[in-house]
Amino acid sequence: MTLLKEPDFGTPARAGAATIELTVDGVPVKVPPGTSVMRAAKEAGVDVPKLCATDNLEAFGSCRLCVVEIDGVKGTPASCTTPCRDGMVVRTQNERLGKLRRGVMELYISDHPLDCLTCSANGDCELQDMAGVTGLREVRYGSGVEAGANHMDLPTDSSNPYFDFEASKCIACSRCVRACDEVQGTLALTIEGRGFDSKVAAGAGVSFFESDCVSCGACVQACPTATLQEKSVVELGMPTRTVLTTCAYCGVGCSFKAELRGDELVRMVPYKNGGANEGHSCVKGRFAFGYASHPDRVLEPMVRNTISEPWRKVSWEDAISFTASRLREIQAAHGQGSIGAITSSRTTNEEVYAVQKMVRAVFGNNNVDTCARVCHSPTGYGLKQTFGESAGTQDFRSVDESDVILVIGSNPTDAHPVFASRMKRRIRQGAKLIVIDPRRIDLVRSPHIEAAYHLELSPGTNVAIINALAHVVVTEGLVDREFVASRCEDFEAWETFIARPEHSPEAVAGIAGVPAEKIREAARLYATGGNAAIYYGLGVTEHSQGSTMVMGMANLAMATGNIGRPGVGVNPMRGQNNVQGSCDMGSFPHELPGYRHVSNEDVRDIYEKLWGTPILDEPGLRIPNMFDAAIEGSFKALFVQGEDIAQSDPNTQHVFAALGALELLVVQDLFVNETAKFAHVLLPGTSFLEKDGTFTNAERRINRVRPIMAPRTGKQEWEIICEIAQAMGYPMHYDSAAQIMDEIAMTTPTFMGVSFGKLDELGSIQWPCNLEHPSGTPIMHEDEFTRGKGRFMETVYVPTSERSTRKFPLILTTGRILSQYNVGAQTRRTANVAWHAEDVLEIHPHDAEVRGITDGDTVALSSRVGRTELRATISDRMPVGVCYTTFHHPVSGANVVTTENSDWATNCPEYKVTAVQVDLIPEPVADESTREPVVAGGNR
Amino acid sequence: MSGGVPPYVRLANEIAAQFAHRPPADAATAIANHMNAVWDPRMKQALIAHVASGATDLDPAAALAAQQLQAPA
């Protein structure tokens, strides 16, 4: 499409029925109470000139360009700050108003460079537009030096890697400041000085890069001039066409306008109609797309017979033939179950569906698993057991109606920043916040945000805490008896279980390290504070009791009636863009698409008839089981789609041993990643800018991913899967990704009504989408749970076997940082490294002092399975005895030290609890390239 | 393998720990149901063989559960 310019109504929409009737320039219009005259005018088809107003910010009334006349009202009020009243008669255009506006514009232009023809915003400048709209023909004061004192010599701040701040072009409209406050919620920007000296500043005397700015781009988007401008626009010029697509980073799934000049991507601009993000973005989605054109991209297939040989570039035909024949040879030699595949949460639903179909219909087994195994598999298990559906209950919009927000083991401002902004907005409006996390994440206390309670629990004690919260609810008479009686089952047994004294806050305090009264107060707030919503992340799932904890949270929500309406619910914050989708598509070895067990004959029958081949009725191997079986010798070949298991999976020594034992490892990826070092075939993958398909985000929202360019590799990834299947003797063919979605819809009840056509029509769809809910289901379990009655589950607290010891006295927990994503394969190949060039170990001042460690020292981090080296950062964000790191860089290899411990139900690794020792390395490491992680037993 | 314990034994013991509060027979049924639902046949086979070999490193409820596993084809 041509460049999509979204209408700007000037001020935000107001909720409610349109009951206020007025006329604007003679045109009648009805609007909800609280709507501004400016917005009403726009809805009546009348554009009122404006500069400081835009419809994602509350009215400010500073530019005075939007003045209007209203019958019965003195003077010329600003239409942006004037609310509509019934019967109002508004005039927006006459000679008096025109003169006033030209006067305003003269003042602006007298202090603005007149370099429009060479300005980067030429053609996309609201100041330029308003000069035209108001009919400005002369500036009586002159411009620049001749006009007297001015701001035209102010320097440009180019410190941010992605945008410039050209202060000389600033009109001090405060849109950037307000965007940072209201939209992003960081409050990094301010207007410094008074009167003529007023200017935008990023903190006190520091550059944008040095400031608290998180580079979300909201200020750039809000700026009406070239003052805040993407460097890419400065370099390449204004884009000329738009492709609507979906971000490929976290599970928020933001909609973007990919804006191009010809086939060159100029910038990514968040889409106002995007269901998940509603026009907001973060530093990753907005700016960090350069990896797609990075020279490290592999664009041609490569093969080798052994991993000690160099790669050989081959044709697609040869690569596919090599792969297919080796897979069949291995099956012939070692059995049907000796091969399998891992699907990716970074690829589309259609690509994932194709891989699991290849495994089931062509490999003839169920050895397919997904990287969600190592993140949210306990969510699938726990929510299915209790609610009957392996997915979160709400849409993101729901948080706008929450009164109490309980964040457990999730760090939204770093990992899900766009949703975090929405959550912070609600908290600023008055919602109460409870944070349960060993680490003092930013949400606990940041500008205008403060948690009512931060339960700073010891890592590994989640279940004890959630049981204690439920204990308070049950024993203090806070149960929603009506909800429980009508909607749930197995309550009585659970009530008896949870009321036992061992679950009391007093008993748990000593286990979790949280004062009993604090637990009680938090429980009371959750149960009695109005709509209470739970948001959780990998700090819940990546434990030996991840599944138990998910069920514990579901119990708490059901007991208090916080399910089935806006503002409540149990909401997993999914790590990668398509975690939900990859799970939905049948990637688990015991479930066909739609979470239906392989032992279900009726479900198998659907696929057996369609695919013309029998489906095994026994579960296949999960990822950790694949590794175990590879080492044991019964699993010989693995196809890995778009994941870097050698870096992301725990206990690196074990993973290396497993990958090294395979006779064939096929990696489909953008880059020669850590896993590819063990591979025999590398099939180049497509970036999200080349993909055609869908992603499903954390709120079950299916979004279209539209290609802005043809695949740089020459093939879509699902085409490659089909060709491997064909080469293995199975007739697998699709004409398009849309056809794959049609097959998904035909075979999966929750996707019954989904098609590319409908997605194009509606923008996005939250599954279930069926005859009952033809436009999707934003809130689940409204009248009854998917399984009928919500089921209470007894959640016994079983401490992890990973304990601190004399040899390993500290507990390491791991997490993420805003600027980097997962294993960093994408973000490390962008300018985001400016914010996080290496992983560091956060260590408490006390633990550092007793070890003689100071900030910036290089330290050895060792556990019972491995040792690595990182730089230390002294931080009191964690309690004494707990340290923290990220896993975005392979050089530090955080997973060298994580262990084989896993969730009892799903095998999700226990990344969040590892007993470690930290030792100072006296001499700094001289050469970064020689810093290699060491696994116990020596490096390979 | 962790400390010489085969993975399927470690996993079986971890599952058993979750059901330790239940009567042994109930616990064994719950453990077996879980394994039947999510374990690959070769893991079940290995556990059955492990019990048959007289191994003593298995939680009693897990050992009881092994007897209820669907014998892989």
UniProtKB/TrEMBL annotation, chain A:
Domain 4Fe-4S His(Cys)3-ligated-type: 96-135
2Fe-2S ferredoxin-type domain mapped to chain residues: 18-96
Domain of life where this protein originates: Bacteria
Keyword entries, A-Z: 2Fe-2S, 4Fe-4S, Iron, Iron-sulfur, Metal-binding, Oxidoreductase, Repeat
Residue intervals of the 4Fe-4S Mo/W bis-MGD-type domain: 240-296
InterPro entries the UniProt entry points to: 2Fe-2S_ferredoxin-like_sf, 2Fe-2S_ferredoxin-type, 4Fe4S_Fe-S-bd, 4Fe4S_Fe_S_CS, Asp_de-COase-like_dom_sf, Formate_Dh-H_N, Formate_DH_asu, MoPterin_dinucl-bd_dom
Residue intervals of the 4Fe-4S ferredoxin-type domain: 159-192, 204-233
PANTHER family: FORMATE DEHYDROGENASE H, RESPIRATORY NITRATE REDUCTASE
Family: In the C-terminal section; belongs to the prokaryotic molybdopterin-containing oxidoreductase family.
Protein name: Formate dehydrogenase alpha subunit
UniProtKB/TrEMBL annotation, chain B:
Superkingdom, taxonomy of origin: Bacteria
Protein name: Formate dehydrogenase subunit delta
Alphabetical list of Pfam families matching this protein: FdsD
